[in-house]
Amino acid sequence: MNRRELLRVGMTVASCYVIRNKGTHSERVNARYPTGSLLMRATTVAGSPLRMSVRNHEAVGDGVTLNTARVQEALVRCNILGRAEFVIPAGRYLTGSLSLRSNATLRLETDATILGSHDLAHYCGGQVRREGKWISGYLGPIHAVDERNIAIVGDGPIEGNVGVGGKPTKDKPLRRPALIEPIGCYDVRLEGFSTFYAHIWSIHPTYCENVAIRNLTVRSTETNGDGIDIDSCRHVLIDDCDIATGDDCVSCKSGRGEEAYRLNRPTENVRIVNCTFEGRGYSRIGIGSEASAGIRGFFIEHYRVKSGHKNACYIKSRIGRGSFIGNLTFRYIDAANMRMGFLQIDQVNAGTEDECTAPGLEGVRLFHNFRFTNIRVHDAPVSIQATKLYELKSWMVYGLRISPAPASRAFRSQTRRTSRSKVFLSRATLVHCRR
């Protein structure tokens, strides 16, 4: 073969390679998975996401058959397609850990239920947060790690198995699985469904940004059963949710001790609106005490507390945890049936004592810019109690109204009382509001 013939053969091979790899992403997917294959058993409408059903992947909704592998395969294929919606039809689908992938939506149709397995062997492991520390633990029935544009929507419930909840022990040191846990994710949407779980948190976004949680019904009425725990996240919306728990309904955190202080991942810009909370646990909204990276920009509006074992809101810290909690706004709040009162503030002694603390004055958390407007409290012995303060700057209360309740005590502070409905405190030892 002479040189000219060799070049001609080489150009022919190269042109075939280029032609074979031309085409859009969808065309290449269609070539890889022809019509009629398992991946392409779906229907599309122009401009809408591709829709696939769990039934096409041979999942069985009898509440007994374990479907983890089948459902996970479908979620991976949704990611390959780039924009797809995975549909769970009516039935009870038993699974272990499911990992959501980028650009995928999990849709629960009416009467569709995802059931968490009772066996910890069905859950995968990873690095998770517990009480403000990164430790080894189990990832939940639905989780995501470092993904973008993920969603869970629809009508059906997601039910965890209470047998896998609880606290780590010496024999089983791994943290137990939270029900829904996105970690390090961007653009997360949770909307429309209900959850049932106990003994550990239901929804726990960690290190996430742009999180929208709308129209959820959350039930977790046993001990240590937080509803939604926001952990070192930015730009979070919780809208029109009905939450009843055995611990905090919503808890806002950013890690604990020197580890979190050095990592410096604060929780910022959290908005809670139009929600109803109740329960027999600690507080309906807890801010801290695991907040060593800081919390700022917390806005709560049109929020109703039906009952509370202790407080409607608890802002808390401990000396040695450092950083700040600031720019908190509460307005148009209606709170009733609280055993201890509407608001409690503890800057000094809340939470577990840390082994490694932030040093010196760095370990004293700054509390600043708390604003409460148009608050109505029913049936609470004390409205506001702030008995353990190191320093509190710019504290204002407007329009506080107390409806019939046991006799309350008068204001006592180190600064002046400007009126019966407005209080300014730069540093207080005790605050009890009267009608």
Q: Describe the main β-sheet briefly.
A: 21 strands, mixed
Helix content range: 10-25%
Net shape: globular
Structural class: mainly beta
The overall pLDDT average reads: 79
At the fold tier of CATH, the topology name is Pectate Lyase C-like
Uncertain regions spanning at least 5 consecutive residues: 3-47, 405-435
CATH architecture identity: 3 Solenoid
First-last Cα distance: 103 Å
Domains, number: 1
Number of helices: 4
For CATH, the homologous superfamily is named as: Single-stranded right-handed beta-helix, Pectin lyase-like
Can you count the beta strands? Answer: 32
Oligomeric status of the shown chains? single chain
Task: State the CATH class.
Answer: Mainly Beta
Percentage of residues in DSSP E strands: 35-45%
Rg from C-alpha positions? 26 Å
Question: How would you describe what is shown here?
Answer:
The protein is mainly beta and 435 residues long. It has four helices and 32 strands. A hairpin with a 6-residue loop joins strand 1 (42-43) and strand 2. Residues 3-47 and 405-435 have low confidence and may be disordered. It has one domain: Single-stranded right-handed beta-helix, Pectin lyase-like (Pectate Lyase C-like, 3 Solenoid). The longest helix has 18 residues, at 3-20. The protein has a 21-stranded mixed sheet that branches. A six-stranded parallel sheet has the order 19-22-24-26-28-30, with no helix packed on it. The N and C termini lie far apart (103 Å). The protein has helices at 3-20, 25-32, 68-81, 257-263; strands at 42-43, 50-53, 62-66, 84-88, 91-95, 98-99, 104-108, 112-116, 125-130, 133-138, 142-145, 148-154, 157-159, 180-183, 186-191, 194-196, 209-214, 217-220, 228-231, 234-239, 242-245, 250-253, 267-279, 283-287, 295-305, 311-316, 324-336, 341-346, 366-378, 384-388, 392-402, 422-425.
